[in-house]
Design brief:
By secondary structure, the chain is α/β, with parallel strands linked by helices. It is built from 9 helices and 6 strands, in the order H-H-H-H-H-H-H-H-E-E-E-E-H-E-E. The protein is globular and about 60 Å long.
Length: 251
């Protein structure tokens, strides 16, 4: 156990914790750090040559902070220096080490993306949230967000990404992809994520965002008709069929 610094003792005398600090303490407790680190070890530099690499768990914690608080590489580096709650979550003592810089985080993030480890993290954290009773069951909130992508063909392959497409929303055209999310209605935690081209309609992906026991679904007008794919089939196949109920728009 590390020795407390003067700032730790000072912050320990506070009468109230921030929601950010409470959230990070919960995540620090329930996340299986050893399991996540073991997924990265086979792909991480060994440090036999050049400068010794930063510990995997330190980089992993920084990466998760970036994901949870939607920060850029530079933004999360500055936030850790600025926020006691984030520094505490990172386990960094400024007398002993600095926060990893944005470039180091960039290389770490690209490593996770290239090896497809991000999805494994997502599934592992969701399992831990369920075991800890942080995710409820019975209802889900579904929504989709457009993710812009460059439409230029000035690249090595001289063409656009085949997974992207154009779509018109309101009076404006967008090019890129669409992120479809299923959120636990009780806790607000995201339990399912699906990515499609931007022109894929929200309601067509809704079935992939629902869990087996989600009897109630909340969504905006893009999900009108969501109940149609869930009409019980005729005959013996109807046994055990899960039917969802459309309750209208949520804003």
């Amino acid at each position: 156990m590390k020795q407390e610094s003067f700032s730790d003792m000072e912050y320990g005398c506070r009468k109230k914790k921030t929601k950010r600090e409470e959230f990070l303490e919960i995540m620090d407790e329930i996340i299986p750090w050893d399991e996540l680190v073991s997924l990265i070890v086979p792909h991480y530099p060994s440090g036999r040559r050049g400068r010794p690499p930063i510990e995997i768990e330190t980089m992993l914690r920084m990466y998760l902070l970036q994901c949870w608080f939607t920060l850029s590489d530079e933004g999360v580096e500055e936030a850790i220096y600025d926020s006691y709650a984030m520094r505490k979550f990172m386990g960094i003592h400024f007398l002993e080490q600095d926060v990893p810089d944005a470039t180091t985080l960039l290389h770490f993030r690209h490593l996770l993306e290239d090896k497809g480890i991000g999805r494994l993290f997502f599934d592992a954290i969701n399992r831990c949230l369920e075991r800890a009773g942080r995710i409820m069951r019975g209802g889900a909130i579904v929504d989709a967000t457009l993710i812009s992508a460059p439409s230029s063909t000035k690249n090595a392959e001289k063409k656009r990404d085949p997974e992207t497409h154009s779509v018109k929303k309101g009076n404006q055209w967008h090019f890129g992809m669409k992120c479809h999310t299923g959120v636990d209605a009780g806790s607000g935690f995201v339990h399912t994520v699906e990515a499609t081209a931007a022109n894929v309609h929200d309601v067509t992906v809704a079935a992939k965002l629902l869990r087996e026991d989600d009897a109630v679904v909340y969504g905006d007008s893009a999900y009108l008709g969501i109940e149609k794919p869930y009409q019980p089939p005729a005959g013996p196949a109807a046994k055990g069929f899960r039917q969802c109920h459309w309750l209208g728009a949520v804003y």
